Amino acid sequence: MQLEQLIRERRSIRKYNNLPVSQDLIIKLLQQAERLCSYDGEARWRYVYVGTPEARERLADYMVEKLQDNKIVKLVLSKVTDALHKRVLEVPASLIVIAKTDSNPIIHDQTYGAVCRIMQNLQLLGWEERIGMVWITDPMIQNERFYKRIGLQEGERFVGIVQMGYFDKAPKGRSRTPAERNWTEFVWNER
């Protein structure tokens, strides 16, 4: 498949079929994704694989835990939290992505940028294998308790969760914003 076509056709997939995604295939795709991303020095990130039924159950619990602390939310939105919990359980595999932080803002941003490129590459490479993915960064899960539960350590930042699985049907594409709409020309004014 041509790269432009691949980029245009890839979709975020949130509904997966029951086929398991091999951990070995995920590792292979990650290795390819990292090779396609240039960065200086050693890798400053890590991945936490969530693929067993027990691990998916724990992740689902952690993702809805903060919501369930609120008694009003627990009473009023219990069906919503139950549906979210069930949906996370149905995801064949998830990858929690964690990056090292740095006091130097340039290194900090370069690390985050490299990890984002790797995750985009992973999604494109997965699409070629008919593995759909969605990158989750929902504010609901961005809290200290969740970070502690997933093993985030001092000097690290949560980048997101990539949910993945084989799918039967891809959603239709949305219209894209033309690049010209976000285009500004720099004009030098000497004073």
UniProtKB/TrEMBL annotation:
Under Pfam families, the record lists: Nitroreductase (PF00881)
Question: Which molecular-function annotation in GO is an example for this chain?
Answer: oxidoreductase activity
SUPFAM superfamilies cross-referenced by the UniProt entry: FMN-dependent nitroreductase-like
Please give the Gene3D superfamilies that the UniProt record associates with this protein: NADH Oxidase (3.40.109.10)
Q: Where is the Nitroreductase domain?
A: 7-166
What is this protein identified as? Answer: Nitroreductase
Biological source species: Paenibacillus cellulosilyticus
Q: What is the lineage of its organism?
A: Bacteria, Bacillati, Bacillota, Bacilli, Bacillales
